[in-house]
C-alpha cells in the first residue's frame, strides 16, 4: 500500500513514472511499457494496459494500439509443454500499421550521414562517430527504439567463440559492458556470471576444447570442466546428459533495452537526431554515389548511408541494387516468472541451440534453435518453440520443469552464409556502408564494432576486419567459419 | 502469494478452499507496518532504476549486487515434475468465453448441427448467463468451465485446465472473451478494500459483503446501477459518486476514507469502481485482429458481421463492443455468417 497513484500493481509503476517516461520522449505505449516496466509482471498487463494507455494519452503521448499480446495468457509450467504438437503453427499478430505523429523538432532534410536502423549497431556507431567529432547525423528507426532484435535478444555477452576475430572483439565488448553504466549513466544490469557451454558427446567436447585453446591464447580464461564441476557451478543440471563443459567466468548478461536507450540519449546529447517510427522507402543515388534517403517523414539529402538495419538489411540494400547474401531467420525466446537468484552462468548447448540464463529481475530467459520457421521477416510466436524449448530445458535442468513461462516472443537474426558479418564499403557505390550479417550476436559485438566503424568513417583508419569481412569475399569464394553460433 | 506451492498467485481472485496452503512471498513487515514503504520515503520522486547509482562504477556494482538479492519473488520448486501428456481434440467451432454472448452464439450454431465447444477459465457460470447455459447444453454444446485459452496459433488453441495442457483444433474460433476490469490510477488505489464492480458482485454471489459502508465510484452513472442494486439487496449501505470527483483513497491496512476534489473527505470501508473496463483483446489479436482505443479501453475490431480477419474468425459480446452496447441481435448476425462459412 502506498500513497502513490499506482497504475501497474505487479511492477509498482505509478502515474508519475509514466509521465516521467513520456517527458523523456518515450511517447508510444510500447516504449513507455519498456521504459517503466508496466505490464511486464505476472498479469502481463491484463489489469493495467488500459489504465496506463489513458495516463500516456493524458500526458501527451500517443496511443495507437495496445502492446503486442504475448502467449501464454496465464503462466504455465514448462513440464506441461514438451508434448505439444510440433506442426509449425504460429500466431499472426498484426505488425503495427500506423506510426505515431512526429514531434515538431524533426525537420532536418540534410545530413552528413544517415544511419538506417536504430538498433544497438546503428545507435552505437552514431555515438562513436559523434565522440570523434562527426556532426549532423540522423538515425532512422522504422519502429520504436528496441522494436527489432536489439530489444528482443537474451542479452548474452561472451568471449567464448571459435574464431580469433570474434574472441578478441567480444573480449573488448565485455570490458565496455562492464563500464557502460558509469560512462553512459544508465543501468544495463551487466552481471558476469559466466557462460557454461555443455557438451553431450565426445565430438562436441573436442570442438569445445579446441576453441578453449584458442580463447586461452587470446587471454580469455575459459576452462574445460568435468560434468561434476559443471554441476557444482549449476546445481540444477542433469549430469547424466553431459560429457564435459567449457566455462568462462568473465562472460555475462546485460539487460538489452537500457543499452540501446543509453546510446540513444548520449547521441541526442551530442546533437545526433534520432527519429523513431521513421521508415525508409528508397535510397537515391547520383553518379555512382548515395545522394538521399526517402522516408515516411520526408527526404534527407546525404552523401553517406550506413546500413545497420539488422534482419531488414537486405531490403535496405536492394534500394541501391546491392545484393546482400544475408537473410532473416526467426528466433524465438521466452521468459519465466521471477525467482530468487539460483543460476549463475548462462547455460548453452551447441548441439540443440538451447540456452538459458537468469536475468537481474530473476526471470529465466532462454531460447532454442529451430530450423523449421517461416522464411522472411517473421516475429510471430509458435507452439513448436514452447514444445522444443520446454523439452530440452526439462531434460537439461529437470527442476526447471516446475517453473512457469510468463511470455514468449520472437525476433529475427540477420543470417550470413558463413556465419561471419559483412561490413564496410561496397564497390561501385560510394557512400553506402554495410554493418550486416551479425547473426544472433550483433548485440554483444556492437560496442566494439561501432568503434572500429567510427574510426574508419571519421578518421579513415582501415581495420583488417574490413578485408576479412568484406562483401566481395562471397564472390571470391573466401568463406569463413564460426562454430559457436547459438540458435 | 504462494498457493498450494504455486508462486506469484494474485490471491485476490482465488476462491478459498478447505486445506489450502497460502504463504507470503517477499514480505517485509505486515499490511499495517509495510517496511518496504521505506523506499518510497527515501526516494520521494520515485525510484529511477535506470539511472540510480550510475555515477561511480564501484558503487554501481554494489547496488547491482543488492538489487539482485532482492529481485525475484519466487523460489525454485524442490520437486522434479513429470512431463505431462497433451490431449488434442478436433471440433467445428470453439467459443472462448461462456458469458451471455458466447453461450448464445454457441446455441444458435449448435442448433444447426456443427459440433461446438465453449471453454471458460472461470470455474462456473456467471449469474447473468445461467439461462443461456441451460439452452446451450440442451442444444448439444460442450461447455467446459475451468479451461482457459493460453494462446491461439492459427486455428489451434492451447488450453490449460490447471493440471494439464490440451490443444483444441477448430474450423472456426469465436472470441467471446469479455472485458478486463480495472481501477483508475488515483492516489492510494492499492489499499485493500478497493475493488471492481464485478469483483464486488462475485463476492456477493459467494455470500460475502465487500464492506459495510460501500462507496460506488462510477465512470458513467449508468455503470453504477446494477452493482448498487445488488449491494442494496444485500443490505449494504451504499454511496454513489463519479470517480472523477475522487482524488485520493486513504487508509492503512484497509480503506478508511476517500478525499474529493473539493477537499472534503467521506468515510468508507470499501470503494467499488464501476464501468472501468477494456476488451480482452489478447487472444483475438493472436489470429490477426486489430483493436481500437476508445472510452479509455481497447476493443477488438470487427466488421459488420463480427468477423475479425478473413476466414471464420469472429468476436462477439463485450470484448468488441463494451458491456453496455453488446446486443443479442448482433450475436444472431454473427451466427448466421459463421454457419454460412462452415457449410
Account of the 3D structure:
- The complex is a heterodimer of chains A (487) and B (343).
- Chain A has helices spanning 15-23, 29-36, 49-58, 120-131, 164-184, 202-217, 227-233, 256-269, 313-318, 383-396, 442-459, 465-468, 472-476; strands spanning 6-8, 13-14, 76-77, 113-116, 137-140, 156-157, 195-199, 223-225, 244-248, 252-253, 273-275, 280-286, 289-295, 298-301, 305-307, 327-336, 346-349, 354-358, 364-367, 404-415, 422-426, 429-436.
- Chain A has 487 residues and is of the alpha+beta class.
- A nine-stranded mixed sheet of chain A has the order 3-20-16-19-18-17-7-9-8, sandwiched between helices. In chain A, strands 11-5-4-15-22-21 form a six-stranded mixed sheet.
- In chain A, a hairpin with a 2-residue loop joins β12 (280-286) and β13 (289-295).
- In chain A, α5 packs across α11 (442-459).
- The longest helix of chain A is centred in the middle third of the chain and has 21 residues, at 164-184.
- Chain A is globular.
- Helices cover 25% and strands 29% of the residues of chain B.
- Chain B has nine helices and 21 strands.
- In chain B, strands 3, 4, 5, 6, 7, 8, 20 and 21 form an eight-stranded mixed sheet that branches. In chain B, strands 10-16-11-12 form a four-stranded parallel sheet. A three-stranded antiparallel sheet of chain B has the order 13-14-15, with no helix packed on it.
- In chain B, α5 (197-205) runs parallel beside α6.
- At the A-B interface, α1, α3, β3, α5 and α10 of A face α2, β6, β7 and α7 of B.
